Amino acid sequence: MARLRHLAILTENVERLVRFYTTAFGMKIVEGIGTATYLSDGHINLAIIPIGPELKVEGKQLKPGIYHFGFEVENVAALRAICKELGAVTDIEKRPGNREAEYRVYDPDGNPVDLSQHGWPI
User: Fold this and answer.
1) What is the pTM of this model?
2) What percent of the chain has pLDDT over 70?
């Protein structure tokens, strides 16, 4: 069974959001890769991502706010046909090596969904 494991938020002020979630909700900063600051409650990972670098990679259509969410899955290959059959906008695509998630697919409404077999730091 897949597990919802992370939510990503784009922001122009990483420090402000990190302070908010660590102080208000007791989340802890955990190790991660890339430009994001990763927080965890021990179950779910929250990636606070500076919007500037993402605009260069993903395009100027990005806005601050909820960016994508991710599932930890047992077998990405097994999901390829299922996602296509259910109307995913894209095939499951390999992500760059500087990302926590190994793959991404866009659901039928175009929402980005990260997929990882190794999971996220908690």
Assistant:
1) 0.71
2) 97
